[in-house]
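Figure 6 in text form: structure in, sequence out.
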């Protein structure tokens, strides 16, 4: 019986590892074949200890599940109703035959096959709007036999030509606030040169940083599970749905079913892989993020390439003319020039990382690792000589129409890269943290969590409101916070604007600002996985020689299910609770005090979405003038 690519890879493991993995894989398959309508057998939790220790570390094991027909659905692998049982049985029989042969003592080591594989489900597919452009720009290449998660990917090789479509680039530019980003970049460049006259960075470097920030904070959003379209409550990713003709037109081969157990209603989430469509939907996971961001880079004239990682992540690289090197750019993380983030920070076991651009394909694995021997030991899916030959063939076909000058430039760049790859780098501080994007379950299951999230969970004292000279003279301190704009307005100090909710917080623990692009809502809530969230603001008038005459506070909070929010005011030894009902509360008891703290504690809730069931300052993104939080303090001499 001919072995499938995934089973072939599985056979390359030690005999003990193969037999252990095969036993578990056969159990999964046999359970479905015996009870095809039993839902519990059609779902495998990724975080399950047996799965994570017996299958995840074994080359080819998870790929066997994908070949059987399983699909990734956030925290689980799911065998959808639409999957062909015949395919599952074929892979099952292939495994059983090899296992039986080994148990009889007839083990025959399998040599690595010279096959390339297709990208994961979230990798891009050619744009229907740009097929002609891609075809015109791509010469015929060597045939590629698809097999899950092995390099290189012919579809990525063809797909990147979509980014060169002038009409599509213009459409992308219509969404990008180019002038605003350029102005901010110019200011940052000026500040950098003032701080360091020897600064060699260019305008494009700072424009890239501004583009990353805008894309992450204002344009694109991460999707775990969509909110229910009827009750706006939480949903779970259930079995896949069949794609419509329009879904397929925009490259969505897979449609997720986000099911609300309360309403018994399904919300469709097509996994669009066409960047033109992504400019409209503006949401997805790493594949969609990298796909759309790479287009935006090309639209602004930045030389960019799409990065495919065999351990299921995608990002972008942008060439810095001023630094003469390629820069790692992860739009999901708003991260730039942190190539060791995945291996050191997330704990990924890298094997193949390939860069695809309009001009060439490059194996850039070594840029992203400081553990080259370990990576080399995992590169067993194809023969290295074959990989080099295939990439060379791709590049020869793509570069036929290039000028001699451009070919020389690409060769010189490649030589610089190869020299860089020879010496493993040491991780920088910014590369030591875990993943930010995706749900906690997603990150934990994939082993990509950070040890400490200083951005959202810190008890270190921070900002203290103390009177400015104007506020001291006026005997007044007046502060307002807008959740929509995410900024404080210090009304009593000539309407000074301070951006970001965290900037003026005294203490914060396990809270963050959540933007719901689907429902156009914004609020501060607990971080996922936390049981309690806390935030406080401190006011101290002692340095100005003043004391409180009167205090009024307006705060709003909202809870769902059994969620709870407790607001209280601390002054000296006394604590006063007050409701967060959006109504102004006066506190005459603070008269004569010189300082106080306003604090909110968030807790309670039900199920996996309990962290969302207690919210501060919830309001519509369209209500730009709405004030979510306001404190007015009248002062007098101490």
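Output sequence:
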């Amino acid at each position: 019986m001919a072995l499938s690519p995934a089973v072939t890879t599985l056979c390359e493991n030690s005999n003990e590892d193969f037999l252990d993995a095969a036993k578990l894989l056969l159990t999964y398959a046999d359970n479905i074949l015996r009870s095809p309508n039993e839902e519990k057998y059609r779902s495998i939790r990724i975080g399950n200890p047996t799965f994570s220790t017996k299958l995840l570390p074994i080359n080819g094991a998870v790929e066997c599940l994908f070949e059987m027909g399983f699909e990734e659905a956030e925290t689980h692998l799911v065998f959808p109703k639409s999957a062909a049982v015949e395919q599952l049985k074929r892979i099952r029989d292939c495994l059983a035959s090899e296992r039986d042969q080994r148990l009889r003592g007839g083990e025959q080591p399998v040599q690595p096959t010279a096959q390339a594989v297709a990208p994961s489900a979230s990798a891009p597919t050619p744009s229907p709007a740009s097929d002609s452009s891609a075809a015109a720009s791509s010469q015929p290449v060597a045939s590629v036999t698809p097999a899950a998660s092995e390099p290189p990917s012919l579809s990525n090789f063809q797909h990147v030509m979509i980014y060169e479509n002038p009409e599509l680039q213009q459409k992308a530019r219509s969404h990008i606030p180019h002038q605003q980003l350029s102005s901010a970049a110019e200011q940052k460049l000026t500040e950098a040169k003032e701080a360091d006259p020897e600064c060699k960075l260019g305008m494009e470097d700072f424009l890239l940083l501004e583009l990353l920030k805008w894309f992450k904070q204002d344009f694109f959003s991460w999707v775990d599970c969509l909110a229910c379209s009827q009750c706006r409550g939480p949903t779970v990713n259930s079995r896949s749905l069949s794609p419509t003709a329009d879904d397929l037109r925009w490259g969505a081969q897979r449609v997720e079913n986000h099911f609300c157990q309360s309403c018994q209603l399904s919300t469709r989430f097509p996994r669009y892989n066409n960047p033109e469509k992504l400019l409209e939907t503006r949401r997805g996971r790493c594949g969609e993020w990298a796909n759309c961001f790479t287009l935006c880079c090309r639209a602004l004239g930045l030389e960019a390439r799409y990065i495919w990682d065999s351990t299921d992540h995608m990002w972008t690289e942008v060439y810095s003319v001023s630094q003469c090197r390629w820069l790692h750019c992860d739009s999901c993380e708003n991260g730039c020039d942190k190539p060791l983030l995945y291996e050191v920070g997330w704990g990924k076991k890298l094997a193949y990382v390939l860069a695809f651009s309009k001009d060439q394909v490059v194996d850039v694995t070594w840029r992203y690792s400081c553990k080259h021997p370990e990576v080399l030991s995992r590169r067993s899916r194809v023969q290295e000589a074959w990989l080099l030959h295939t990439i060379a063939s791709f590049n020869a076909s793509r570069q036929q129409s290039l000028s001699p000058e451009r070919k020389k430039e690409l060769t010189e760049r490649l030589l610089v890269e190869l020299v860089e790859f020879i010496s493993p780098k040491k991780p920088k501080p910014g590369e030591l943290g875990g993943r930010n994007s995706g749900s906690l379950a997603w990150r934990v299951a994939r082993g990509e969590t950070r040890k400490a999230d200083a951005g959202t969970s810190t008890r270190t004292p921070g900002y203290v409101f103390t009177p400015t000279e104007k506020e001291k003279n006026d005997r007044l301190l007046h502060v307002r916070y807008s959740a929509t704009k995410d900024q404080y307005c210090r009304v009593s100090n000539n309407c000074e604007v301070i951006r970001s909710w965290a900037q003026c917080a005294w203490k914060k623990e396990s809270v963050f600002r959540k933007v719901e692009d689907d429902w156009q809502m914004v609020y501060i809530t607990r971080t996922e996985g936390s049981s309690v969230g806390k935030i406080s603001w401190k006011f101290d008038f002692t340095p100005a020689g003043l004391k409180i005459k009167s205090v009024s506070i307006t705060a709003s909070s909202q809870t769902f299910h059994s969620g709870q929010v407790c607001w209280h005011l601390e002054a000296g030894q006394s604590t006063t609770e007050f409701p967060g009902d959006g109504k102004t509360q006066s506190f005459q008891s603070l008269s004569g005090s010189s300082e106080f703290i306003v604090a909110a504690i968030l807790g309670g809730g039900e199920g996996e979405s309990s962290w969302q069931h207690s919210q501060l300052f919830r309001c519509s993104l369209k209500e730009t003038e709405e004030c979510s939080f306001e404190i007015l303090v009248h002062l007098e001499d101490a």
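Caption detail: The CA atoms of residues 571 and 596 lie 5 Å apart.
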